[in-house]
Amino acid sequence: MHVFKKVSVNGWGGGALRLLHLLLLLLICIMKTTQCQYVKDDNKKNNEFYTAGVVEFRPTLSGMSSADLLAEHLKAYLEIITSPEAEDIDIMVFPEGSLNNAFQLTYVPSEKQNVIPCSSNASEYAEFLIKLSCAARDVHKYLVINLSEKEDCPSPAEDPRPCATNGLNVYNTNVVFDREGRVISRYRKVNIYVENKNTTLEPEYAMFDTDFGVRFGHFICFDMLFYTPAQELVNRFGIKDFIFTSLFYSELPFLTATQLQHGWAWGNNVNLLAAGASYPKSGTTGTGIYAGSEGALVTVMVTSGEGERKLYKAQVPKKGMHDFSSTTEKEKVEQPILHLLQEEKKPNHSTGRHLDGIRLLKDPQIQNFDSLLLEAGKHIRKKICEIDFCCEFVVDTVAVDVPSNSSVYKYRMGMFSGSRTYEKDQRNEIKVCAVYACRNEDPESCGELLDGEFQSDIYFSYLFIEGKFPKAPKLLIMPSTLDADLNQLSRDEAQWKYSPQNVHIDVDIWLNGERRDLMTFGIYANYYSSAVVTEVMNRLMMLCVGAGVLYYKMFENI
Questions:
Q1: Contact, 120 vs 101, CB < 8 A?
Q2: Relative to the CA of 109, which of 267, 278, 323, 443 has its CA 20 to 30 Å away?
Q3: pLDDT exceeding 90 applies to what percent of the chain?
């Protein structure tokens, strides 16, 4: 204290003392590098981006015992987690169904228990869960792992459904570890798709906060097609960043894996980290990182070979601090439609040459679309309506010469309004306006692939679709685009305008430049329920459209 008084007497003011104090702190920080690193990590809350990694992972399906399969998968997981490529990642996501199976289960603590399996003396956790907890701690990253979980059946008073004879419930579960290896979130899948798994008595909503200032919601695969929990996390809880683990069976022409991921993120204008199991021969692949209406930051569909084990990463803009919604909407509204004819022509990038290596499902109701075959070299303007739902198409096509004996894709422009089915009586009410490719002129051939490289006798010089969709309380409208390599069109290649009106929503999508390699181009609306509520102009009457029933066996003990 005597030293500071002496300095002040010699002309040093309080400001100079503070400067000296800051210099001393900086010197201490330089000498203690670990403390500097800690301060840097803490300040990441104020950065505009975080670094995310998603893993496309090929599971080994046979040739080993279940214990050996688990050991092999775990070893590969740990190699990816500790790889040099992962060093700068804040959060890493692995896909659904690619770690353990029903013969190698583990208990999983709830986030309420505040458990770090790596530091726990409890013997109930499987060794692989402990090792993953330790890996998260060692690399100081958030890890999201999907696994098969076991839980002792609750007493009848808690859950009246019958229990399995072995006294266990088995869940499809996401587990989130923080940088210390602590379980900070656990989610059990609500919407089961052809799985011998249980569901919770009441649906779960999974959210967690990070030290870099982002709150995540997460869900699993088939959940993305339903209101609870996926869309409800957006509408009810206001989540802007999502994690999606999947083992998704792609379906043409509207529900291939990354096509749905891209559309869901764009339609909601949220960030989405999606990790997909990789086995294209069975139809599963699809991984990406999406920045809402800004489109894909990275995306991959493996369409040949045995699949892959690969980490993909990107810097993701934080929606709370770098929200694109206002500028994006302004650009959409001010974009003059006629100006598109003067824009730079966009070359084709896709060939479809490798699609014989992937198994793809087909929309079971594609033949029920109200559709019209497109002719080459024509200008077409067509409006199709059903009650209070309309699709309008403006299309200019150029005829392309192809060898007379070659097979070429044909196109239909079509609309659909009604209930579509999935497995086990699960249904959604959907409305679609789209142009889509077919093997031939028969409507039943739409959504089917030709052999070999993509070839069409039509070049799209102009393509514009407008849909008028009735409003509803549970609704997501999203772009649905696909090229010949099963990639989505970027924001530079496809433009989008969303304009809510009094009783309906006007949605436009149009093509930037010319294309010959389209598989799908349109608007896909999921109403999540059978009753689509809208208002007539006098707002005194209510109109119910469609007869589908959103029904899934959430209360069935499988």
A1: no
A2: 278
A3: 70
CA–CA separation, 491 vs 12, rounded Å? 59
Q: Does residue 362 carry a catalytic annotation? A: no
User: Residue 40: which H helix or E strand, with range?
Assistant: helix 33-42
* Residue 273, φ and ψ in degrees, nearest 5: -105, 110
| DSSP-derived pairing of the beta strands 532-535 and 310-317 | unpaired
CA distance 303 to 319: 32
The question of whether 514 is a catalytic residue gets the answer no
156 burial (CB, 10 Å; 0-12 / 13-18 / 19+) is exposed
Answer whether 521's CB lies under 8 Å from 511's CB. Answer: yes
User: CA–CA separation, 142 vs 89, rounded Å?
Assistant: 9
Q: With contact defined as beta carbons under 8 Å apart, do 239 and 233 qualify? A: yes
pLDDT digits (tens, 9 = 90+) for 169-215: 999 999 999 999 999 999 999 999 888 899 999 999 999 999 999 99
**Active-site residue (options: 96, 195, 429, 466):** 96
pTM of the model: 0.83
Residue pair 439/494 in contact by the 8 Å Cβ criterion = no
CB 458 within 8 A of CB 516: yes
pLDDT digits (tens, 9 = 90+) for 426-480: 788 999 999 999 999 999 999 999 988 888 999 999 999 999 999 999 999 999 9
CA nearest to 532, candidates 467, 478, 475: 475
Q: Which of 373, 326, 352, 378 is nearest to 449 (CA)?
A: 352
Give the three-state DSSP class for 361.
strand
Distance from C-alpha of 271 to C-alpha of 233, rounded to nearest angstrom: 13
For 506-549, give the secondary structure using H, E and C. EEEEEECCCECCEEEEEEEEECCCCCEEEECCCCCCEEEECCCC
Taking the C-alpha atoms of residue 72 and residue 80, their distance in angstroms, rounded to an integer, is 13
For residue 264, the one-letter residue type is W
Backbone angles phi, psi at 468, to 5 degrees: -110, 110
Between the CA of residue 480 and those of 40, 50, 316, 318, 445, what are the distances in Å? 40, 27, 22, 24, 19
> How far is it, in rounded angstroms, from Cα 334 to Cα 356?
42
Number of residues written out for the chain = 558
What mean pLDDT comes out for the span 246-271?
Answer: 97
In a 3-state reduction of DSSP, which class is residue 305? coil
Catalytic, out of 56, 149, 151, 189: 189
What average pLDDT does range 517-538 have in this prediction? 70
Between the CA of residue 238 and those of 115, 189, 234, 235, 526, what are the distances in Å?
28, 20, 5, 6, 19
Name the active-site residue from 118, 221, 433, 438: 221
Q: Per the structure block, which two tokens stand in for 284?
A: 């599963």
Does 544 participate in catalysis according to the annotation? no
